[in-house]
User: What shape does this take?
Amino acid sequence: MFKPQKMVKVGIVAPNNLLNKVIDTLYSLKAIQIEEYEKSEDFDIGHPLKRGEELSELVIKTKSIASNADINLSNKEFQREKLQEENIRNEINNIYDELKNSIETIDFYKKSLLAIKQKSYHVAFEGLKFDSARSNDENSLFFCGFVKRDIEKTVRATSETSFILTKDVDGARLVFILAPKAKKAEITAILKENNFLGIEKDEIRKLMPSVKTQFVDMHTRTEGLNRELVKEEKTLKTRLSQIKKESEQFILNANEILEEEHEKCEAPLKFAASKNTHVISGWVPEKRFEKVKETLEEVTENKIFVNLIPLKEKELGPVLLNNPRPAKSFQFLIDLFAMPQYFEVDPTILMFLTFPLFFGFMLGDIGYGFLTFIIFALLRMKFNKGAVSQILNILMLSSVGTIIFGFIFGEFFGEEFIPYLHIELPHLLSRAHQINELLAVAIIIGILHVLFGLILGFINTYHHHGLKHAVYEKVGWILLIPLVNWILVYFFKVVEGVYATILNYTIPPIPILIAISIIGVVLIFMGEGALGIIELPSLLSNILSYARLMAVGLASVQLALIINENVGIMFNQGGVMIIFGILLLIIGHLINIILGLFGPFIHSLRLHYVEFFKRFYTGGGKKFIPFGEKQKLN
Assistant: This one.
């Protein structure tokens, strides 16, 4: 729970004829993070499975269809259906070819229409030269216009004497064709099949006066072309709507299945390969190793070899966090910062305990807590997966913390005394009247939080570098805590009364205080050098930073009191002012709640990321991503 799961490194040797079975099994187990093999003299790198290229093309086509039909492929709210790969292939190819043809036609119409309207094709005629005998032959025909596809090979195949030249005009394909009269029907059929848009015969004569052969007039009027364009666009829009309505489920399933199969086909690129075998190495959680081994041996009838690979010195595995379900949402906040290293304490459970309390300390209101909890709970019913659901879980727990501190502070929408109901809320600490005490509590929380971070830092360093480094790097800072407490109580005097008395128990007599402080500074210098000495003031500033727990909360309660006071004045005036008072009450507290959510959330994060984590946490671990599990934000 406080440490990432222990990892072991495994090696799997499989004969080539069992490679498909091994890959399928590993994919379904989702238990091994495969390490990429680097080519050596002994082994080559594996090659993708035969179906890989075809599957890659199908994945691209599926995504293209989804993009055009406005289908969200990240939507996992669908019933997974087992589809046959052959059926997927046929259906995807049919839909893709249909849409591609329609989109190409629309694009062709738009570009050609623009070229015809603006007569930008004129430049294509400049410098054109044809064989004089052929271009003046009365037995030849001349075709000129725009086509959707490349027809050069098809035209040349009709006759050895056929001539074709293609020019690009702002993305549109303009063709010039000289062909025997006997081939007119064949050429005309080819052109019509490719949506030929001919240029007006008289226009061609002006641009090509030297060509005396007969010009074929297959001119398309722009009005007709516009109608065709509108018709094609309408047809495409209708078809896309139909695909989204009738085939969305299929597209989602097909994309999921194709991506899985494609990933399996690409897997051998990470394997070492010889003539007859493939070698797979990777990381598996220790507690799952036996299950992985047994399953692989069972499906291959013990024809493969699975063993543990001894780790090299300082070789660390990927990180798989191991937290109870209530705390898992806080892994999202850890991911935002950095994954712990393999040997480090996992701070997820600590954030689960302290983040909602810090948040609650700052917002601390029964009314605000209940209201925000209800809102977040309703949103959680709608967003039950992904990063949004994780944030909502965190905010729901933070709302519980707000309610708890609301009872401690005795506040309901900023009031300690509920008007009209004549109820005075009991409290342990009044934020409106005991500001100094509130500051002292915030400071003491900071001392405890930072001290706990230093203790965790000692544990981390001890496990990774040994006792000597742990003493040098962390004990020195711990020995300075009593000096910081003395400064807070006697120099800055920010902690007074009963709270000062509590801290006095941690402050030894002055001679001893000076001695342990000097020892602490020496240890810090031995462990961190001059940089550690420069960082000495940061210990005090980090602890004082926890005063924001008081300051943010105080700003919130003061704003609530101002709103309530003005609302009370409006109510006392009666009449229409009551309506304005109600509006102010709703809008004012709504704004205060919104501010009260952003401020405590951000400042709670800061207190953990900056003041707390820096005492024990380095991060930088690589997340465990098993083969078969897609990378996604939790």
Q: What stands out?
A: The CA atoms of residues 117 and 222 lie 8 Å apart. The first strand starts at residue 7 and ends at 15. The chain has 23 helices and 13 strands.
